[in-house]
Amino acid sequence: MSKDEPTYYDRLRSSTAVQSLASEQEIWRAVSTYESADLRYPFYFTDSSTQKIRELDLYAEYHFDSGIQNGTLNVVFLVECKSLSGFHLVLSKVQSRWPSSGSVLGHVFSRRHYDFQEDVLRALEATGYAYPIPLMRKRLEEITYSRQVTEEAGAKSSSYLPNAVESTSFRETNIGVDRELDNSVVWKSARALQDGRNAVLARSAIYARNAILPLRPSEQLISLDRLEESFRQDIGSDTLVYPIISVGAPIHVFENNTLHEADHVRLRIEVDDMGSFWVDVIRHSKFAECFAKILNHFQEEFPQSTDED
Q1: What is the 3-state secondary structure (H, E, C) of 260-273?
Q2: Is the dihedral of CA 170, 175, 177, 183 positive or negative?
Q3: For the whole model, what pTM was predicted?
């Protein structure tokens, strides 16, 4: 072997596997700069559809005061790192008919608590809870749809998510070849993040339900007043899962027949039989800067909670 010939170590160091780990570590360093309630690298979860263990590159959780009934907004960032080596990401910027993703907080809270309310009632009914379910539903609905809760949620609707260029259409291209949707790295990553989001929200719902439901048979006669109080404490709390794909490729926005580069965009995906979901895409070289702005948005709009629980 000549002196100039790459060694085994050199080849391994420049391999895609090691380069991928290096990118993940850069993201971890950027996020770990800020104090969080929970930080995991990587993040493993169970896929509810396959029951298999899946992996995402990063999980970071922050707690903020929701401003609704003294509740807590738990913001969970899920991050996937992709090089997209040799490709460009191009997004189409047109006037969308869909409402802005920053104007749904009131709906998110009310929808989440209706589902949570029904989950609690079904579980109580299964345990032989002493009080009539229709009476409990009426009492809990008075809390879920109270004017105070609705007004407090509505007051936050304009500041739910930080601003970003939004698009519903994208292409991955190396200029010569465009990837089909099934082969798209961004699409696969978005779906993986959506699966991770579902796992996080399912876990949060279980934790919240267990905090309210009687845990022992002797507590099955828990008073309705106590149930209401526990439910009221939860009504202002929620978990927002914030999915991010960090890409090494250049990001371009096509608008009015003009291309311009961007560091941070939001891809909104509407699927008839799945509903809608969104994911932020950030240029890897700008991740630390963009993440700082995103976190600062939540720190300004939702003061960080001092509750260690």
Answers
A1: EEECEEEEEEEECC
A2: negative
A3: 0.79
DSSP H stretches of helix in the chain:
8-13, 16-32, 105-126, 133-144, 147-155, 185-212, 224-235, 287-301
Mean pLDDT lowest for which of 68-72, 185-189, 266-270?
68-72
CB 297 within 8 A of CB 266: no
> What are the phi and psi torsion angles at 61 (to 5°)?
-120, 135
Structure tokens at 4: 């100039």
- Rounded to the nearest 5 degrees, what angle is found at the Cα of 237, between the Cα atoms of 235 and 242? 140
Give every CB contact of residue 70 below 8 A, 6+ residues apart in sequence.
233, 236
Q: Which of 185, 181, 165, 204 is nearest to 75 (CA)?
A: 204
**Peptide bond just before 243 cis, omega within 30 deg:** no
Asked whether the beta carbons of 139 and 223 are under 8 A apart, the reply is no
Distance of CA 283 to the CA centre of its chain: 18
DSSP 8-state class, residue 6: P
- R_g of the chain, CA atoms, integer Å: 22
**Angle formed by the axes of helices 105-126 and 185-212, nearest 10°:** 50
* Residue 67 Rama label (left phi>0; alpha psi -120 to 50; beta): left
Q: H or E element: which one contains 283?
A: strand 275-283
282: pLDDT strictly greater than 80: yes
d(CA 57, CA 82): 10
Rounded to whole angstroms, how far apart are CA atoms 160 and 130? Answer: 39
Please name the amino acid found at residue 32: S
How do beta strands 58-65 and 72-82 pair?
antiparallel
Burial 46-61 (b: 16+ CB within 10 A, else e): eeeeeeeeeebbbbbb
Give the tens place of pLDDT for each residue, 12-32. Answer: 888 888 888 888 889 999 998
